[in-house]
Specification:
315 residues; mainly alpha; two-stranded antiparallel ribbon; two-stranded antiparallel sheet; 70% helix; 4% strand; globular; disordered N terminus
Length: 315
């Protein structure tokens, strides 16, 4: 397992830990808190789904309850407010877990490589996933030169996977259900994709991926087609990260909404005698959500590999 994988993991965690903010701004957090307080005060039989989905200025801990986080504006990086919110804290948790898992695994892998011994246990499972992505996903889709993109794509996969699964544990939250986190991942992917295209095609070749200029057409028609299709090409570049961000966020948010809605049926009818059906559905949907957590991480990594291959081998 290459040391570049771990470097990429650390860079991704550091760059994204302060980016996970609610795009609706600071006003979203008081609104969510007021909605939660109103729900608790005026309706003891209801469940506030939005409180569990939106970002917040407090975090829930076992045996402690809700712990307030620093108010907005407490941590400033120049004009930028980097005060942590609930999802920022969980992005930090993802980064810590990745470092805790992969740094020791890399050290053990390096030692096994020196001693010519086979991997065992959890290290064997991680290496199997890494080799699968390298040989079956990244290199076939990126093509020649795909080896240098393996650390980045694998980092994306594990970051998203851990973020998805953290939403399944008690008191946990899936940071990947927040559009700011998924948008940060998508923007980071866009930078890598476009940079790969610039390096592979050169300045002139890269500009052809933006400005449509067909040498075989007459000049007047060539100009007209460039005027029409250039915005389309540019929109196509921007639509890729948009689709990546929205797809991941929507899938993870939808799973949370459905689970909470099923749970709310118990309180809606006010009877535990009908709880069997909702609980059974929650169990089934929980297993489905675990599958979706793996699937969405895989799809994100796969599409990034495809987009890199498309631009680096545009011919």
């Amino acid at each position: 397992m290459s040391a570049r994988i771990f470097l990429s993991l650390m860079v991704a965690a550091v760059m994204l830990m302060s980016a996970a903010r609610d795009v609706s701004g600071q006003e979203a957090h008081p609104v969510a808190a007021e909605q939660h307080a109103a729900a608790v005060e005026h309706s003891e039989d209801s469940i506030d789904i939005l409180h569990h989905i939106l970002d917040d200025r407090q975090i829930e801990l076992p045996f402690v309850g809700y712990v307030p986080l620093p108010p907005a504006g407490s941590w400033m990086l120049g004009p930028v407010d980097v005060t942590p919110t609930k999802y920022v804290i969980w992005v930090w948790v993802i980064g810590i877990l990745m470092l805790t898992i992969f740094v020791p695994t890399g050290i053990i892998a390096k030692r096994n490589q020196r001693n010519a011994s086979a991997p065992k246990g959890g290290q064997n499972a991680i290496e199997a996933i890494v080799l699968f992505f390298r040989d079956q996903v990244i290199i076939p889709n990126v093509g020649h030169g795909g080896e240098k993109f393996v650390p980045f794509v694998i980092s994306l996969f594990f970051f998203i996977l851990i973020g998805n699964l953290l939403g399944m544990i008690p008191y946990g939250a899936a940071a990947t259900a927040n559009i700011s986190v998924t948008a940060s991942l998508a923007i980071l992917s866009l930078i890598v994709i476009e940079t790969a295209g610039m390096r592979a095609l050169g300045p002139a070749g890269y500009m052809k991926t933006i400005f449509y200029w067909n040498q075989e057409l007459p000049l007047p028609l060539r100009v007209a087609m460039a005027f029409i299709l250039t915005p389309v090409e540019l929109l196509g570049k921007l639509s890729k990260p948009f689709a990546l961000a929205v797809r991941l966020m929507a899938n993870m948010t939808a799973g949370k909404v459905v689970l909470y809605a099923m749970l709310g049926l118990i309180f809606l009818f006010g009877s535990w005698t009908i709880a069997i059906a909702p609980v059974a559905m929650i169990v089934v949907l929980s297993f489905l959500k675990i599958f979706v957590a793996f699937l969405q991480a895989y799809v994100f990594a796969l599409l990034v590999s495809v987009f890199i291959g498309l631009i680096t081998h545009s011919h």
